[in-house]
Amino acid sequence: MVLVTSNKIKQLLFFTFAGRVEVDQILQSHNDTATIIADLAPGFRVLADLTSLDSMSVDCAPEIAKIMELCAKGGVKLIVRIIPDPSKDIGFSILSRFHYRTKPRTIVCQTLSEAEKHLSLP
What we know:
The structure is a single chain. This protein is an alpha/beta fold. It has a single domain (2-114), classed as Transcription Regulator spoIIAA. 38% of the residues lie in helices and 31% in strands. It has helices at residues 23-38, 61-74, 92-99, 112-119, and strands at residues 2-7, 12-21, 45-56, 78-82, 105-109. A hairpin with a 4-residue loop joins strand 1 (2-7) and strand 2. Helix 2 packs across helix 3.
């Protein structure tokens, strides 16, 4: 499952990845992501939670890259990823190097409470 949502007031784009993620789920989330980014101002932040991710198809990489490019084009300033198990960093770090031309600050956390501190969320 891929869930994309936002908090416009906090300028936060939130991705949740859970279970086994397949390419069709990423493709379905692409339009939602584009619509949400259009409502956010440049300088927005991204929170990607991989806590409940079991696995992700290798076919997802090109589509994840496209979403990263949408975020870069929209003006993302900070990316915080929650990855409690480093083996579940299914290539996000490598893809980021090539698809975020603006080089937003990226932080990897193990818990949501740790991520909250970096995002300055109450």
